[in-house]
Amino acid sequence: MKIPKSLLIDPEKNSVYGAFAVAVSIWAFSYSVIFGQVLILAYYAVWLPLILVDYRRFLRRLSSAWLPLLFAAYVCFSVFWSQAPGVTARTSIQYFSHIACAYVAARTVSVRTLTIGALVGIFVVLIYSLKVGNYSEDVLDGTVNFVGAFASKNQIGFVGSLGIYFCFVFLAFYRRGRLSLILAVPVVLLSAYVLVVSHSATSMASIPAVLALVALLAMSKLLSRRYRRVIFLIGAGLLVVTAFVALNLGLMDFVLALFGKDSTLTGRTYLWAQGWNAVQKSPILGVGYAAYWVQGFAEAERLWNEFYITNRTGFHFHNTYIEALVELGFVGATLVSLIMLRTLYGHVSAVIFRTWQADSVILVGVMVLLLIRSFVEVEILNPYIMGSFLMYFSFFKLARLPVTRTRWSQALEPAEAARGAADWPRHAGRPAAAGPS
Fold it and tell me: Of 130, 203, 303, 332, whose CB is crowded by the most CB atoms within 10 A?
């Protein structure tokens, strides 16, 4: 039996396979440490063979991916100055292939299919973690936190926050009848429960802000592009001023206290200082990709000992930019920052300055969540991590953002609503007619 190509690579027709592939990917990102190489091979198996189905599809507009490809090449070339060339060579190839999988996913899977697949994968991942039911004591602050089958509370907290986020956007933009609601409710309840019992302050603090932002961007469809631009510029200015005032008035310590944290962020500020000291030794190129946290190296062993990391693996500086500076220098840190900023700006500009699209709203939320977490976690620099997959998926989606029809499009477009629901699809994707654009 011959399977039509469209069922595998056409974003309009491959929702079943695409959702399955995303779910497999999330399982691999979460538990490859437990189940080993079999999950990594499954991750590659659901994405890379699609290139053979229609290789021309992936060669079109390949030039739009020049920035991630440049960064991936730089990561690979860091083997020539790495202090641990064997580790750098292996890990850089893994990272390059990870980016390739995200590229294939972005060219073959719609944002709607990504959302559905993420919900399925996250639900299975959290069910397994509840079954394992492990708790871990944080020796720095003395708390006992639920970690499930993960290595830390922040990892499972991130999965829980993603579960809440994708449930929210699924119900807001893609819901089709009561069945969608019935299927989403268990995921959001389970995600919320795991988020609470994990006591991950980063996840609990970031997800409300991201959901509020997505709601505002969704409602911005009521406005013409001219008013969207004005409100966006005013809002961005107010946000900067508010952040500056909050820092100077000590409100940050108050917010941290609400989540049981002090001004040191449970030792993170000390760790950042140690990372900055390491940067001074090789500020331009760094010590090599993945070449700092290597067993047998004096500085890594010292920090593992100070932070009670007995297995001497899976640790980092809890800041994406410091981690990038240490491993890849100012060159690498600049490149990865440009990727994140280009992705975020691209989707924000699609919503604010061009035709409103639900897909861009959803990916803006994903990128803001990753941006917030990037200051206290490292989730976009490693292969086989959900954060890096979502960032590169979002970047590659900038190459082509199809206009999608959603429930919000009907509910929030005044001009189409006036003509009646049956008349709406003919006008999907047009800006509101409340004012000139």
Answer: 203
